[in-house]
């Protein structure tokens, strides 16, 4: 199986060959059938996939590479009072003889977007990087490029405008439909990768918290824990007796509790644990949280027209 990743991810799967490639080449090689799976930014997928119906998104939100594809114009000169794409389109300056000059690496999505937004007189130039310098260099009036923090735009005295975002993007996992259907074993590997990604993304948001608590029974400790809003865990707390030897006698007057808590609620959870007598709080990161069958798998099967769906998929669709 051949998959291509732009970013280094640890994959411990057999029967999988991983290639690191330039983003646009990943999409091109999916189209040509040289790769089966790929991880790229949604922007690159849309730009180089150009609506090819053999390409399919397997996971649409891998939670990294967040950015947007946006139109930006100078914040000075004739553009100073222009704050929307509508106002840009209505500027009298753009004529057949003197069109709006746009620099972009997105030569498929850029022209399509400006046409859809009523800009008739536009020409495009392209470059592989540092597009933000084009207006100051006098070789373009506007740019269509990726924006994340907005720092590069600011440094170049450029601004985004209302209605100027072409696409919100992040890393996605993509595949060739034909490969998924025809290549033996690919669907199984895709399922496993998808499950691991989902489980990992779910885990990123959580900590495991272990604490000790004095109590008379597991039920009595459970009642105290469940009285606190941030301590209910995924299903509920796991509570086990802690055995101690006191004056030669084995006693279980302490209980160990294990819960998962949202990262942003960690401190609140520690305070709530303390308030009900918790001590010795240990906090560790989680690698995976496997839950029920992911709806994305069921959606993939349905998009591929494969209706040997599992019972979990039946439940998800009912
Ligand atoms: N500033 C940014 N912040 C977050 N994500 C970004 C940023 N810039 C780009 N990306 C994402 O990373 C992907 C790769 O970026 P980019 O195209 O700059 O890669 P590259 O390694 O420079 O490739 P190339 O050499 O072909 O230009 C983009 O498609 C986009 O999804
Ligand atoms: O909004 P910001 O956080 O400033 O990020 C945006 C910049 O990041 C990307 O460039 P990259 O660093 O990949 O360089 P390149 O354009 O030369 O590929 C993009 O092309 C912008 O220039
Ligand atoms: Mg780049």
Automatic annotation (TrEMBL):
PROSITE patterns membership: ATP_P_PHORIBOSYLTR (PS01316)
Co-factor requirement: Mg(2+)
Residues spanning the membrane: none
Any GO BP: L-histidine biosynthetic process
Sorted UniProt keywords: Amino-acid biosynthesis, Chloroplast, Glycosyltransferase, Histidine biosynthesis, Plastid, Transferase, Transit peptide
Annotated ranges, domain ATP phosphoribosyltransferase catalytic: 22-194
GO cellular component annotations of the record: chloroplast
Single GO term (MF): magnesium ion binding
EC number assigned by the record: 2.4.2.17
EC class name: transferase
Entry's family note: Belongs to the ATP phosphoribosyltransferase family. Long subfamily.
UniProt cross-references to PANTHER family, sorted A to Z: ATP PHOSPHORIBOSYLTRANSFERASE, ATP PHOSPHORIBOSYLTRANSFERASE ATP-PRTASE
Job of this protein: Catalyzes the condensation of ATP and 5-phosphoribose 1-diphosphate to form N'-(5'-phosphoribosyl)-ATP (PR-ATP).
Full protein name: ATP phosphoribosyltransferase
Species for this entry: Mikania micrantha
């Amino acid at each position: 199986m051949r998959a291509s990743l732009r970013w280094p991810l640890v994959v411990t799967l057999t029967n999988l060959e991983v290639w690191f490639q330039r983003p646009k080449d990943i999409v091109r090689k999916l189209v040509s059938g040289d790769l089966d799976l790929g991880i790229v930014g949604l922007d690159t997928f849309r730009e180089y996939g150009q609506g090819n119906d053999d390409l399919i998104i397997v996971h649409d939100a891998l939670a990294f590479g967040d950015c947007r594809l946006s139109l930006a114009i100078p914040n000075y000169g004739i553009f100073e009072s222009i704050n929307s794409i509508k106002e840009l389109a209505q500027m009298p300056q753009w004529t057949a003889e003197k069109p709006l000059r746009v620099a972009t690496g997105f030569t498929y999505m850029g022209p399509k977007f400006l046409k859809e937004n009523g800009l008739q007189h536009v020409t495009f130039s392209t470059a592989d990087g540092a597009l933000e310098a084009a207006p100051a260099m006098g070789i373009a009036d506007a740019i269509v490029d990726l924006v994340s923090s907005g720092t590069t735009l600011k440094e170049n005295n450029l601004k985004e405008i209302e209605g100027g975002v072409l696409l919100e993007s992040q890393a996605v996992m993509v595949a060739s439909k034909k490969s998924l259907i025809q290549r033996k074993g690919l669907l199984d590997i895709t399922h496993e990768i998808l499950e691991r990604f989902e489980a990992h993304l779910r885990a990123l948001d959580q900590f495991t918290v272990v604490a000790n608590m004095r109590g008379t029974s597991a039920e009595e400790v459970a009642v105290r824990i469940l009285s606190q809003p941030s301590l209910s865990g995924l299903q509920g707390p796991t509570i086990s007796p802690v055995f101690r030897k006191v004056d030669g006698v084995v006693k279980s007057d302490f209980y160990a509790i294990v819960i998962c808590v949202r990262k942003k609620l960690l401190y609140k959870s520690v305070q709530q644990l303390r308030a009900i007598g918790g001590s010795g709080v240990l906090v560790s990161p989680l690698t995976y949280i496997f839950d029920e069958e992911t709806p994305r798998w069921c959606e993939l099967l349905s998009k591929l027209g494969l209706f040997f769906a599992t019972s979990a998929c039946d439940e998800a669709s009912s």
